[in-house]
Amino acid sequence: MQDTDNKFELLKGDKVLWSVILLISFFSVFPVYSASSNLEYIVNNGTTTTHLMKHMFFVILGLAIMRSIGFVKYEHIGKLSSIFLAIMILLLCLTMFTGQKIDGASASRWLKIPGTPISFQPSSFAYLLLVIYLCRYLTKKIKRERLPIENIFYIFGPVLLVFGLVAKDNGSTALMILLVSLIVMVIGQLNRKYIFGFVGLSSVAIGLFMFLALKTDLIGSNRVHTWMSRVETFTNTKKTTDVDDEVLKAKNYQVMQAKAAIVHGGITGMGPGKSALKQMLPQSASDFIFAIIVEEYGFFGAVFLITLYLIMIIRIIMIASKMPAFFGSLLVLSLGVMIFVQLAVNIAVAVNLIPVTGQPLPLISYGGTSMLVTYIQLGIILNVSSRIQVYDEEGMGKTQNIEEINDIA
Questions:
Q1: 262-319, pLDDT tens digit by residue?
Q2: Average pLDDT over all residues of the chain
Q3: Closest by CA position to 334, among listed 179, 201, 144
Q4: Nearest to residue 23, comparing CAs of 50, 65, 63?
Q5: Which SS3 state, helix, strand or coil, does residue 206 take?
Q6: Those residues with Cβ within 8 angstroms of residue 397's Cβ, 6 or more apart along the chain or in another chain
Q7: In this structure, are residues 150 and 399 in contact, taking their beta carbons and an 8 Å threshold?
Q8: How far apart are CA 283 and CA 277, in angstroms?
Q9: What letter would DSSP give residue 71?
């Protein structure tokens, strides 16, 4: 029996979740290889082979990191989150002044590591660390009424600070940070009056940011006008069926090409690598890769992929419900919310349910930072799932006292 246990130790944690992750990771290679031809022939950046090798490298690296997280107690990750969050906030400040654009992107969100060709997005890591930090803080203080100054300084402060630093170049991620943070506060049992206070304070912060960006020069090189143009284009498209307006067609070019790719795919799709619109669809390997997947694999392929994602979300919820430790349960649910929101936003943009944003499809879209962050999220979830049996063996019940909660977090 011991040999059987060791045989499956490589996949530590929930085996169904592992299987889904491996399936999606393997599948991602095909649409990325196909759609990356856009980067070669349109953006004039590298070759499809080099992009494929780069994507496969990040998949293998992500899987290795995901498994390596299993060697560290997730409680320690929570305890270190505040330190790493502070470091990422400093890097976000640095990105505001030295950020770069890559692969045809129009926003300076990447920070280059000195002496190397490697660039990454600090906003993605800051977002993840912020959520982990909130989970730990809410767990530590769950049995005690917090003073208003504590919530303002330790909860509202970090969230709004990260929002402000990210919003300049990545508005969709900044809004997702506020939304997910609010959800974490709700499931983390923060008092309602503070939740309403956070909503009000966030609204003021958004309004102030918009005012400073549009009416002053205090926030230079911001993308607020781009956001407003996208929202205006989206609402105008929904209001009218007249697509003869050349200006509207030009502004709505990405969405029109994405919808055309989805329609072209039909029920069974054109076949792997046979997308006819990948060369005309900007960001076809990243933000709009779902449209290419539907075109090449059809309705059946899209349903299969969405089913895998649904299984992933369901397993995450099951892990959270089985975890007796409050911090572990809250952490798993919060990371699951992050993955679900990103997934929903990416697909909603592709089918024109919401204005265009720059959110990748989890585990599939081409791009290193987002992919690695998703693998880290799933690695932590698998880490927690592997501890469920340990807690059961230690006799820890569903109801914890304050000493147990503080010790865990």
A1: 888 889 889 888 888 887 877 788 888 999 999 999 999 999 999 999 999 999 999 9
A2: 82
A3: 179
A4: 63
A5: helix
A6: 324
A7: no
A8: 12
A9: G
pLDDT above 50 for 343: yes
* For residue 189, pLDDT beyond 80: yes
Cβ contacts of 132 within 8 Å, gap of 6 or more: 77, 78, 81, 331, 334, 380
Return the axis-axis angle of helices 368-393 and 326-350, rounded to nearest 10°: 150
What would the two tokens of residue 105 be? 């992107």
Q: Which of 94-98, 260-264, 363-367 has the lowest mean pLDDT?
A: 94-98
**315 by DSSP, 3-state: which?**
helix
The residues that bridge with 195 in the sheet, in sequence order, are none
Q: Alpha carbon 270 to chain centroid distance?
A: 29
Whole-angstrom Cα distance, residue 294 to residue 291? 5
Alpha-carbon distances, residue 194 vs 138, 149, 161 (angstroms) = 12, 11, 17
DSSP 106: S
Whether 403 and 326 have beta carbons less than 8 Å apart is answered as no
Q: Which of 372, 378, 391 is nearest to 327 (CA)?
A: 391
Instruction: Give the global pTM.
Output: 0.87
Going 320 to 321 to 324 to 327, the CA torsion angle's sign is positive
Is 92:162 a contact under the CB 8 Å cutoff? yes
The length of the chain, given as a count of residues: 409
Query: What's the pLDDT at 3?
Result: 44
Query: 60-95 burial by CB neighbour count: b if 16+ within 10 A, else e?
Result: eebbeebbebbeeebbebbeebeebbeebbebbeeb
Weakest-pLDDT range from 46-60, 126-140, 206-220: 206-220
**Percent of residues, the chain, with pLDDT higher than 70:** 81
Q: What is the pLDDT of residue 220?
A: 62
